Amino acid sequence: MLLAYHFTNQHSPFILQSQKSIEVCYTPAQYELYRGGYDVIVVIDVLRATSAMTTALHYGVEKIIPVASVSEAEAYKAKGFTVGAERDGQVVEGFDFGNSPYVYIDQDMRGKTIVLTTTNGTKAIDIAKNDGQVVIGCLNNLDYLCDWLIKQHKNTLILASGWKDKVNLEDTICAGAIVDQLLDSKKFIASEDSTVAAKFLFKSAQNNLWSFLRASSHRRRLIHLKIQKDVKYCLTLNTVPCIPILRDGALVKLHE
Amino acid sequence: MLLAYHFTNQHSPFILQSQKSIEVCYTPAQYELYRGGYDVIVVIDVLRATSAMTTALHYGVEKIIPVASVSEAEAYKAKGFTVGAERDGQVVEGFDFGNSPYVYIDQDMRGKTIVLTTTNGTKAIDIAKNDGQVVIGCLNNLDYLCDWLIKQHKNTLILASGWKDKVNLEDTICAGAIVDQLLDSKKFIASEDSTVAAKFLFKSAQNNLWSFLRASSHRRRLIHLKIQKDVKYCLTLNTVPCIPILRDGALVKLHE
Predict the structure, then answer these.
(1) Residue B209 is inside which H or E element, if any?
(2) How far is the C-alpha of B42 from the C-alpha of B159, rounded, in Å?
(3) Which of B35, B71, B132, B149 is most buried (CB neighbours < 10 A)?
(4) CB A40 within 8 A of CB A227
């Protein structure tokens, strides 16, 4: 990777340090253009899949098996698994729950293995799972995740789930917030315009994040699904100190 | 289209007015997700194809035939046409010029028909040409184009050319500048997150546009191609009051 000198302290003013890449891909549809060369892939689906996954593992769910299709989810259900399925913001018929984070803050969920399929988020996990270490990001675990990423210091791609292959604002802003912290550490460098744009979007939204992001959910009519409480939960920063990490096809809580 | 009430003046405080769509697609690769329902499609490739096209027609080139591939360009050359071809920022071997706007500010170009293929811009024109009225946008014709689009008052899609199917900053910011003016007119409405993000990017770059955009060209190493003069030309607002419009497969100057 690129080499850069950094001024550190008066005793050893220059340390030759290897900078790692931090880049952002806005949607799974664009992933082929970014694939390769990343050791860590952070999947984001702020409304609501990755917020729900992070919440679930933090509050005691043992394991989440993300699956891309409803038919895979049905197959697991037939085998007796506890299965959630969401499409277009709603629970799929025949399933008991979708991607509301509140579902997982429940005594009954503790220690369980959950199977989950969602409109955008599980698709993003599926396409990236063989290309690097997949971890889960959201606004709820923002600072905790950034600290870990900086400590890892590996080439990192943020894969936003978007909305049906189009860019969405809340994932891009969450990605921009991560980029901002990683660039601030001076241990990372960004070279894609998508990454720089995400950072600038976060910066311009930073002081008014809630109304900025709520407008996005309004535009996608999520608000009509009576999930205002979920939206507010998902758009709140740093409430859940937990990083879901993909191991052997299942998300588990990272223990450091 | 959507209907909205607007407060206009004290004599007729409310006028029921039909608002038209203004949306932004960041790259040709995402065009399929946006295709359909747009009467006007504005193709943007700020560095440098659409800036060059606008300049050419303003300074007297009669007609530009955009072609998507180098082989098509070669076929025209064999027939005796004046042909430009650019790939990766450089003139393709065997051709006399590429997409530098300065090439077209030349007495010898007046009255001519030019055939042109470029890395990103002509591809964008090609995929949109049958879906609506294609016109050409850039920073050089920004206000002039916006005035015309507002006067037309039709459902409008801005198709940014991007950089090899990835989003690029200068096209997105130019798109955001157009969106900003059209929304300000109150005659248009935006509902895609890509459109809102482009507008916010423009707003955050607005006061420092030159250094913001120059950084983008640096990252793409255009600066190493010794085209600094071109980059500066293309990033300068409102220098060329001309709108190229696609008619019968060729771009001509719009005469109002």
Answers:
(1) helix B209-219
(2) 6
(3) B149
(4) no
Task: Give B148-205 pLDDT, tens digit per residue.
Answer: 999 999 999 999 999 889 999 999 999 999 999 999 999 999 999 999 999 999 998 8
User: Could you tell me how far CA A229 lies from the centroid of its own chain?
Assistant: 20
The vertex-B90 CA angle with B89 and B96, nearest 5°, equals 135
pTM: 0.90
Length of chain B (residues): 256
Phi, psi angle pair for A76, to nearest 5°:
-65, -40
Say if strands B40-44 and B63-66 run parallel, antiparallel, or are unpaired.
unpaired
Tokens representing residue A151 in the block: 């400590």
At A169-217, the pLDDT tens digits run 999 999 999 999 999 999 999 999 999 999 999 998 888 888 887 777 6
> CA-to-CA distance for A45 and B58, rounded, in angstroms?
46
Pairwise CB contact (< 8 Å): A165 & B193: no
Residues 6+ apart with CB under 8 A from A239: A140, A233
Q: Is B103 helix (H, G, I), strand (E, B) or coil?
A: helix
Q: Nearest-CA distance from A202 to chain B in Å?
A: 10
DSSP assignment, residue B166? Answer: B
CB B138 within 8 A of CB B173: no
pLDDT tens digits, one per residue of B37-52: 999 999 999 999 999 9
| More confidently predicted of B227 and B64 | B64
Q: Which residue of B has its CA nearest to A169?
A: B193
| Cβ proximity of B189 and B21 under 8 Å | yes
Q: What is the DSSP string of B140-198?
A: TTHHHHHHHHHHH---EEEEE-TBTTB--HHHHHHHHHHHHHHHHTTSEE---HHHHHH
Helix (H, G, I), strand (E, B) or coil at A189: strand
Helix (H) or strand (E) holding B145, with range, is: helix B142-152
- Collect all residues of chain A within an 8 Å Cβ-Cβ radius of residue B165: 30, 33
Q: Which of A73, A70, A30 is nearest to A172 (CA)?
A: A30
What is the distance in angstroms between the Cα of A248 and the nearest Cα belonging to chain B? 32
CB proximity A100 to B under 8 Å: no
DSSP characters over A122-157: HHHHHHHTTTSEEEEE-STTHHHHHHHHHHH---EE
CA A63/CA A228 separation, integer angstroms: 27
CA–CA distance, A124 with A107 (Å, rounded to integer): 29
Q: Which of B162, B218, B180 is nearest to B50 (CA)?
A: B162
B48 preceded by a cis bond (ω within 30 of 0): yes
Beta bridge partners of A82: A114
Which domains, ranges and CATH numbers included, belong to chain A?
Answer: 18-253 (3.90.1560.10)
Is the Cβ pair B193, A26 closer than 8 Å?
no
How many other CB atoms sit within 10 Å of the CB of residue B15?
11
CB contact A21 to B (< 8 Å): no
Note the residue count of chain A.
256
Question: Who's near A187: CB < 8 A, 6+ residues apart?
Answer: A17, A19, A20, A150, A153
